[in-house]
Design brief:
Length: 120
């Protein structure tokens, strides 16, 4: 239900050398029902399309989605691309009726929540 809860599910992303974009799908009671690696990028970038995020959401009848990715650089600040994809996912979620609750950036020893920072 919170960024801290989601981060607990994502500790395996800390310290990875490539960017991994993960979706956590929850039911109407915010219970985790499915976790999926959407894509694996390289050291500095990762390509993500809303189609991949929402395909699994539909298949598992998710009500909410937390998305997250790691920054191997250990810089938790979102890039311009991070902000753009988040906006696209939020808009797609509104159309689909599946809310993007948060986008979390994981670093080796910290995290940033788009929701907590007011970016969602």
């Amino acid at each position: 239900t919170s960024a801290k809860d989601a981060v607990f599910q994502l500790t395996d992303l800390r310290g990875l050398k490539k960017e991994h974009f993960i979706a956590l799908y929850t039911n109407a009671r915010n219970r985790l029902i499915y976790r999926e690696t959407i894509s694996v990028g390289n050291l500095t970038a990762n390509l993500v399309h809303p189609r991949e995020v929402f395909e699994s959401a539909l298949q598992c009848s998710a009500s909410y989605i937390f998305v997250a990715h790691n920054h191997p650089s250990n810089d938790k600040e979102p890039s311009q691309n991070d902000i753009i994809i988040t906006k696209r996912l939020v808009e797609a979620g509104k159309i689909m009726g599946i809310k993007i609750v948060d986008h979390i950036i994981i670093t080796k020893d910290s995290y940033l929540s788009f929701r907590e920072k007011g970016l969602i």
